[in-house]
Amino acid sequence: MKSVIIIGTGPAGVSAALYTIRAGIKTTVIGKGVGALEKAEKIENYYGFAEPISGWELSKNGIAQAKRMGVEIIVDEVVGINFDGRFSVKTTKGQFQADAAILTTGSSRQTPVIKGFTEFEGRGISYCAVCDAFFYKGKDVAILGCCEYALAEAYELLPVVKSITLVTNGIETIPKIPPEIKIIATKIKEFSGKKVLDKIIFEDGKKIKVDGLFVAIGVAGSIELAKKLGCRVSGNTIVVDNKMATNIPGLFAAGDCTGGMLQIAKAVYQGATAGTEVVKFFRNS
């Protein structure tokens, strides 16, 4: 039986799942929380509701509908994704494989506002340990982050690099950071260097030399996961065609991560499109 993994339990992901499961495709949806929708107190502009509905209630109803139809819902944080003919999705608790995947974890609304960050993106600042670890063999690197996602990137880098420093920018870390990883919790003042990043300067005046920095802030969103696979992105959005397909065969994206209107109606439409196109992809493969 063909299988699809959908990353994200918001309206785009669940909408896609309704179409794939009805086509007889083994469908797994993995996510932790429903993003911006969860914070919506009252929704009045979505078709079919005579009275306002909260984002939490709408998402709860959608997930219950998917479960009733046979969709497997896994509440977990996705920390990585690989493609070697099949998609392998890594979470904090396990690893899952599928023949196709859909990214629907929304759009990142947090970008580090730190001097030098934008300047050194692609010139010492990377978003993918799996992709770029080789270039830092035997070198000193830092990871910007504090949680499970940052830890997963660290484990990818540990066998390759000389040393890792976790810079949290003032945020408390999770308790299970391995002892071989240095931690600096001080707020960052600036990223510095000549042609490439070579120094991190902190607000207390401390400086550390680094050969590279890997960004793993908070939870891995669609953009971060897309970059790991070599997807085309434009700014903070994933580039898709009118079938919600990326440049990676079998990989689709839907919802806020594709740009445009950040609306539930648009997310549901794109999710339905992505789910339908997964069905066609399997039929034509």
Describe this structure as you would to a colleague.
The chain is of the alpha/beta class. It folds into two domains: 3-109 and 220-284, FAD/NAD(P)-binding domain, CATH 3.50.50; 117-215, FAD/NAD(P)-binding domain (3-Layer(bba) Sandwich), CATH 3.50.50.60. It contains seven helices and 18 strands. Strands 3-2-1-7-18 form a five-stranded parallel sheet, with helices on both faces. Helix 1 links the parallel strand 1 (3-7) and strand 2 (26-31). Helix 1 runs parallel beside helix 2 (55-68) and helix 1 (11-22) packs parallel to helix 7. The longest helix is centred in the last third of the chain and has 21 residues, at 264-284. The protein is globular. The model has no long low-confidence stretch (mean pLDDT 91).
Number of strands: 18
* Broad CATH class of the largest domain: Alpha Beta
Number of domains: 2
The CATH architecture of the largest domain can be given as 3-Layer(bba) Sandwich
Order of helices and strands: EHEHEEEEEHEHEHEEEEEEHEEEH
Mean pLDDT value:
91
The N- to C-terminal Cα distance equals 13 Å
Q: Which features does this protein show?
A:
285 residues; alpha/beta; FAD/NAD(P)-binding domain; 2 domains; five-stranded parallel β-sheet
